Amino acid sequence: MTDQLDRLPGGVRHLRCDNPGPMTLSGTNTYVISLEEASGGDGSLVAVVDPGPEDAGHRDAIMDAVRGAEATRVVVLLTHHHDDHEGGASALVEALRGRGLAVALRSGSGGDAFTDGEMIGDLQVLLAPGHTRDSAAFVLQRDGVDVLFSGDTILGEGSSFVAYPDGDLTAYLATLDVLMALVAQAGERVVVLAPGHGPVGADAAPVVERYRAHRQERLDEVRTVLADVDSENGDSPAQGDELVGPVVDGAYSDIGPQLRPAVEAVVKAQLAHLGRF
């Protein structure tokens, strides 16, 4: 799958940081959005969603995009606190202020918290805990389409990482239900996916549905392993850390040793969801 940037509405620009890797896919996606304000505001308001890691070249590209949008006020929005999304936020805020712009930083580890449903210009905040406890998404309705800026809650390819203790699978499944309702409420409008990593521009509906199905399939596999472990233990069902190894071996037998610590964190989140950790 490749980017379909022509599906993004006017006033939305996509930038990709050159930080590819197993967790970042082709790199962190940053979005520079010219916001529309019902009140008119006191100048041109631009949002920067996920400035990415500390990377001078990427920061310069963001600065150029903000300049091109003729912004006088900028709000830097973080979908969550991971370094590949917020690591460059402080330097960006400082650089923008150095150009005389009014800048606000929202959420992540150092910004002002979001309120679910609040409007920042014509961009709506959607609290989306699960991938991390502070995960948020944003929805923009413009030019007949809805754009879902999903951070790492929904990626452009592959599946999102929900790892204990910051990741919460129960919250994540609830967030997927919220996203399914969002897609359903859009009716005939297309909901375009603008993820934190991976290709941009897919229809969000089948991706969210695939994510839900994938999580349920994994949980069914974990339940099968737990049933086998319980049958072996009889009247003394195992709990907590003693279950992690058997579940990894039974449900993730194809992973290599280098991935085992990460998968163990995922399994702990699954066990916590099932009340076994």
Question: Can you tell me about this structure?
Answer:
By secondary structure, this protein is of the alpha/beta class. It folds into 2 domains: about 5-205, Ribonuclease Z/Hydroxyacylglutathione hydrolase-like (Metallo-beta-lactamase, Chain A), CATH 3.60.15; about 215-275, no CATH class. About 35% of the residues lie in helices and about 20% in strands. The protein has 7 helices and 10 strands. It has helices at about 55-70, 85, 90-100, 170-185, 205-235, 240-250, 260-275; strands spanning about 10-15, 30-35, 45-50, 75, 100-105, 120, 125, 135-140, 145-150, 190-195. The strands form 2 sheets. A 5-stranded mixed beta sheet has the order 1-2-3-4-5, with helices on one face. A 5-stranded mixed beta sheet has the order 6-7-8-9-10, with no helix packed on it. The longest helix is centred in the last third of the chain and has 30 residues, at about 205-235. The radius of gyration is 20 Å and the shape is elongated. The two termini are about 35 Å apart. The mean pLDDT is about 95. InterPro entries: Metallo-B-lactamas, RibonucZ/Hydroxyglut_hydro, Sec-metab_biosynth-thioest. Pfam families: Lactamase_B. This is MBL fold metallo-hydrolase. It comes from Dermacoccus barathri.
